Amino acid sequence: MGSSLPHTMTAMEIARPGGPDSLQLVTCDVPRPGAGEVLIKVAFAGVNRPDIFQREGNYAPPEGASPLPGLEVAGEIAAIGDDVDALAIGDRICALVPGGGYAEYCLVPAGHCLPVPESLSLKEAAALPETLFTVWHNVFERGWVKEGDTLLVHGGTSGIGTMATMLGKLFGLTVFVTCGSEDKCARAREIGADHAINYKQEDFVERVRTLTGGKGVDCVLDMVAGDYTPRNLKALSVEGRLVTIAVLGGAKATINMAQLMMRRQTITGSTLRARSDEFKTLLAQEIAANVWPLVEDGSLRPVMDRSFALSDAPDAHRHMEAGDHIGKIVLEVHG
Q: Domains of the chain, with CATH numbers?
């Protein structure tokens, strides 16, 4: 355990389901780590779309998790529970958390932590875990991509979209993205996308098929679902894989199963938050082995949009919901 921990802390809670104003600053007890846990003094916390869903009452935290929003943090270890050997008080870490990030202190399973190299700011480190864990698991482990494959990512300038683009390029993929404006398409190309398609100006299915000589892409990472699902399947190649990670366009879809069978396509998807601590620990180990060296040598850095004070979390949510951001939004807790 750490010494001289305060008894109380400032946190941002969801007072009631609703709009950004339902986020309210409160004073609450500083949690104490149990076996296998560490307590992080939070420097920065990432803001993610699931935080908005939770605020609206549509994404309850898993059983046993903090009811406070916030799925990723970076900071220093302030206290350590029993059975934690690989970490020490004062270590700079970032971590994926099941909740509780919008606070001065946050409990984290020790196995979900990744070390922050000196070359990486804590602000940038807080912008990595949620998108990195999500993209690595869904694109590389569920989508089975390999060097030379083609990947289509919807929402190319979002936190997920920018991470998928950068990881894709680092691992030898050709990356297609969709965006809602010419300015966003230009930024997506700057970030590394090989092809950026303005979905408001042209049919992404036809554009993808033209750019691939009629073949289609090997994998689609989709956050839309709904009526995008049959269009995604048309944009996929024979043996292509569709991976869905959110349902912004609706949870139900109608697809032509005969075409799916003829083209031997695969539909899969996942949500990460409710997975077990053991699963997330294994995923953290995979990322530490395969991706973290690229963070340590500077090859991989998050695309940063804006930071807000913890007390301005409602404005951070408004900024995300306006849809004009490029990359990641973070909250500054202990700067």
A: 8-128+274-332 (3.90.180.10), 131-269 (3.40.50.720)
